[in-house]
Structure prediction request, 632 residues.
Amino acid sequence: MTKETFTFQAEVGKLLDIVAHSLYSHKEIFLRELISNASDACDKLRYEALTNADLGSGDAEYAISITSDKKGKMLTISDNGIGMNRDDLAATLGTIARSGTQAFMDQITAAKEKKKEKGGVDLIGQFGVGFYSAFMVSDTVEVITHKAGEATAYKWVSDGRGEFTIEEATRDGFGTDVILHVKKEEKEFLEANRIEQIVKTYSDHIGIPINLMPMKKDEEQRTLNAASALWTREKKDITPEQYKEFYHHVAHAFDDPWMTLHNRVEGVMAYTNLLYIPSSPPFDLFNPDRKSSVKLYVKKIFITDNCDGLLPAYLRFVKGVVDSEDLPLNISREMLQDNPALGKIRKALIKRIFTELGKKAEKSPEEYATFWDSFGAVLKEGLYEDTDNREKIFELVRFKSTYSDGQISLKEYTARMKEGQDAIYYITGEDAEQIALSPQLEGFKKKGVEVLLLADPVDEFWITAIGLYDDKMFKSATRGGADLEKVVEADSDKKDDKKDDKKSSNIDPLVAAFKVALGEKIKDVRVSERLTDSAVCLVADEGDMDIHLERLLKQHKQLEESTPRVLELNPDHILIKNLNKMASKSEGIEASVEDAAWLLLDQARIVEGEKVADPVAFAKRLASVMERGLTS
Ligand code: ADP
Ligand code: MG
Prediction:
C-alpha cells in the first residue's frame, strides 16, 4: 500500500486552528489526554481478550510507557492496548470523536469571543479537544499503531494543519505509539521532572502503570502513578483533585464534578460505585439515543460503557464507574440486560442517587437550583417512565411559579394552596417569563392562587400522563373549568365587590353576537372568570388538548388539525362593556362589532404566540377600525 493523504473533516480544521493558536493556558493537559486514550485502549483490549485468547491473555501486563528523547526532541506515549486499523485512524483521528457537530464549533467559537472580552477563560477546561491537544506542543504528530488481531500496522502523520497521511508500517506487538515532535519552545515537556509532575497531577488515578523509560545510561524505568484503579482505593486516601481528574477521564468531560458518590457495598451484593453528577450539561444530553454512559467493570476489568441496565435513561447525566463482584466475567454485553444481579445494583444505585439529591436539595437549595437548571428536564422524564419511583422523583422536582422568582417544590405549593382550591394549577409554554405574563393568569394572580410555570417540552408529557400529586389534580390554567369562583379571595371585602360587579355587567348580547360572527372558528364564547386586565383570551375547552401542546405536536409534524378554542370575554373591561352596548342596541350584527370580534380573536392568538389566520383580512379590519376611530 502506498501513502494516502486525507483532509480533516471541516470542523477539525477550524478546531486545530483554535487549538494551535488560541489556547495557551494549561498546555500540559495534552499528556493527560494521551494517557487517558492509552488507558481506554488497554481497557478495550482486556475486555476483548476475555473472549478471544488470540488477542492476549486476560492478565497481560497492560501498561503505558513514556519515552523522552531530548536530543531528537521527541516524546512518545506508548500503550499495549487495542490499537487502530486504517479505517479507525481515518475515522477517529480525522473527526472530533465526542461531538463533531457545528453546534460544538459554535460554542467553542463563542467561548473564544468571550475569552477575548474577559481573558483567561480556560477553553480546554470547558470543551476539551482530546487527541488534538497534542498539537499544542508539537510541530508534527506521528501515530504508529497495530490493531489487536489484525495483520497490518499503520502510521498516521499530521502537522495539524488540515491534512494527514496514512501508510503501512511495522510495530512490535499490538498497541499504539503516539510520537510528538515537540516544538522548540515547548522543550520543558521533555524533562523527566516536568513529565513526572504532570502525570502525578492529572493521571495518578489511572489503573495501569505509567512508566517513564530510562533517559540516561544506568537509569531504571520508573512507575509514575499509584497504578491502582481509583475506585478500589480507600476514600480517605483520595484527594478531591484525584476524584476530579478521574471524573475528567471516565466521563470524557472537562468541567468540575458537582457531586461525587463513592461507595463500597458488601453483603448480599458486592459492588463499588464511583459516580459523578457534572456541573454543566454535556452537548449530547438531549441526543435521541438517550444512552447512559456509566462504565461497568467486573472485578476491575472493564466490560462496557454502554450498559442500559445499569441506570435508567432519565439518569443519563450521571457519569462514572460501577465495579461488580457478582457478575460473571465472561458475560456478554447482550446478556447483561437480563442479569438479576444487575437489576439489584440498578435499584440500589437509583435509591442512592435520589437520597443524595434529596439531601442536597434540603441542605443547599441554591446549589440544587443550579443542578436543577442543568438536568431537571432530564430527571422529569422519570416521572412518566419510572412509575415505581414517581413519588421519589416528585420530591426532587422543582418549578418556577408565579409565587416567587426562585424554584419551588410541590410540597411548598400544596402547603400554600388557598381555601377552596382543590387543584394544582399550571401553565405551559416555551419560556417561563413569557408565560407568566399570560392573560389567562390574571384572575389567578388576583385571587392569590399560585400557578406553576412549565417551560420544558417534557412537561407536556408527564403532566398529561400523570394527573395527580398528593390526591390533587394538575389543572391547566389555560383551560375551561378552572373553578376559580370556589377559591376564597384573600381579602373577603373584595369578594363582595366582585359579586356586585358580576351582577352589573351582563354581556349576553355581546357573547351571542360574537358567536354568530366567529361561527366555526371558535368552539364557544364565554364570560371569563380569569381575566382582570385583558379584554379577551383563548382557552382550551375542558377535555381538549392544551394550546401549547398542540403547537408542539404540530412543530414535530405529529398533528395537522387545530382544535377550535374557547374565546373568553372580560365583562369588566371597558372595551367589552362598550361593545356590549352596541350589540344590545342593534337587531343584526353591526359591522364594527363583527370587526371587533375578529380583531379580538386575532389579538388573543397573537398573545398565545400563534399566527394570525388571515393577515390580509386582519390588516384591513385594523385599518378600518382605526379610520372610524380617527374620523368620528
Ligand atoms: P475521546 O477520547 O474523547 O474519544 P480523543 O480525541 O481523545 O477523543 O480520541 C479520539 C479517538 O481516537 C478515541 O475515541 C479512540 O477511538 C481513538 N484513539 C485515540 N488514542 C488511541 C490509542 N492510544 N489507542 C487506540 N485508540 C485511540
Ligand atoms: Mg480522549
